[in-house]
Specification:
elongated; eight-stranded mixed sheet; Beta-lactamase; 2 domains; 10 helices
Length: 373
Amino acid sequence: MRKKLLGAGLFFIVTLCFLLPGNALAGPPEVTADAAVLMDAATGRVFYAKNPHQRRSPASLTKIMTALLALEYGNLDDVVTVSPRAASIFEGSVIDLHPGDKITLRNLLKAALIMSANDSTVAIAEHVGGSEEKFLQMMNAKAALLGALHTRYANTNGYTHPNHYSTAYDLALITRYALNNPRFRQFVGTRDDVVEWWGQPRKEVIHNTNRLLHGGYPGVDGVKTGSTASAGNCLIASARRGDRRLITVVLHSQNRYADTIRLLDYGFGEIEQVILCKNGEAVRSCPVREGVLPEVTAAAKEDILVDVLREEIPRLKRQVSLVDSVPAPVQAGQKLGEAVFYLGENELGRVQLVAARTVPRKGWLTRLREKIF
C-alpha cells in the first residue's frame, strides 16, 4: 500500500495501484432496463444504480414481501382452506385453486415463489393475516420498517394498481433482508418442484420462472421474475461467488436476463476487496511525556476491509486523529486516537488507534535530574 501525505499530516490517499491490472478499467455496464440496481448483499452498498428511486410497478416481485411475511408469521405445515375469493383469481399465472381446496402453506409458498402463482398469494394472505386487507397492512408496515420508504402495496401478487409501486433500490433492500431467511433462499433457489394438495391425490409439477437458475449464469441462486404490461419484464437475481453475494434488480427491461448478466459480470469482475488497515499496523507515533521512551507507536486495533470498485480505489482517503501527547506510563492497547476511512465524502469505516507497547514512566530520580539540568 502506497500512501501520500496531504494537508497538515492528517489525510492520506490510499492509492493501492498494485491492485490494478495493466489494461484499462471497465466502465459501468449499459442496460436496457428503465431502472436497475447492483447491491452487495452483505453490506447493502450499491455499486451500480440507474434511476434507483424512480417509482415503478413491481409486478410479481411483490411476492417476495408476501412470502417473507408468511415465513415470519405463518407455519409451513398449516393446512389452508382456499376461499372463494382466492379461487376467483385467474389473471396471469395461477395454480388453479378451487373453493374449499385444502393445501399447506408450504405448498402455497412453492407456487408463489417458484411458478409465481397469483391465486396462491391471496390464500396465503387470508390465512396468515386473517384477511387480505390486514395482510396488506402488514406488508406496508414491514416495508417501512426495512427502510423501503418509496414502496406501497395494494395487493399481494403484483397486479397493476395506481397505489401499488416500488423502486429498484427498495426492492433490492427488501430482497437483501429476505435472503437472510434460509427457507426463503430454499424456495427461490428451487428449479423444479411438485405442489401437492392435502387430502386428495392432486399434484402439479412446477418450474421456476427464473431462467438464470437453469444453467443461465454460474452462482445464481434466486430470486424472482415479474411481468405485466405496465411493469414490463422485471427480474431480481442473487448470485454468489466465494464469500461475495450480489443482488441485481432490473425493471422494465428489454432483456432482463442479458441486463442481469451484465450487472453481475460487472460486479464480480470490478469489485475488489481492499485492506484499509491491519490489526497491529503502525499508523503514526505519539509523543510520550516523562516516559522511558520519547514516543509510542499508534497502531490499528483491528482489520478494516471493504469492497470497492477498482475505479474507486484512487478516491479512498484516511483521516488520522491522535492526541498531541500522552503522559507516562502508557499501557499497551491504550487508546490514542482513531483513523476514519472515506470514499470521497462517504465514510467507509473507522478504527481505534492504540499504543503498540507499554511505556513505563521514568524514575523519580531521573525526572528530578532532568528538571535540574
